[in-house]
Amino acid sequence: MTIDSDTSNWTHKNAYFGSMDFLNKYDPEKICEEISSQDLEECIKIDEKYAYQEIRKIKTQKDIDDLMRSALSFHDAHIESIEAKNDEIHVVFDPYWNRKIELWFEEKPKYENRLEDPEYYWWDGGSIFMNQGYIYLCDEINAHSLDEGEWGIYFAGKELFYRILPSDNN
CA 73, 112, 136: angle at the middle one, nearest 5? Predict the structure, then answer.
């Protein structure tokens, strides 16, 4: 799963798939059997530079870009649960595209749900944007404010944390 939106040294196959330039000579489905020891060492060196965090906090536009890339822009996403308690809203998306996403909106969280039936909690895509100190997630593609589009659900908080897990149904 992609967890970093910086793909400047990648060879792109499409918006969501590609590989580092030095790995593009391998078939992605056979890389485990075909990779040379030199290229594997290079992968390990690159990995050692990256500080993995299981739960990440949104602070910058790059953080938003990372989450949107990891979540495949919430395309075909379905909300499994929404739990609002104290000063937190916890949202869990069903596993889709081999990933499960959990979000925590904290510090004065708020949300609005215009959809009556959870059966309709399917998203065609979503948007994340910052506005007046809040971080918003809504089920409208390419929205930059809540005034745009025909959204059905939005979540917001002064802070947003998330975790992406591989789904069990790979």
Answer: 40
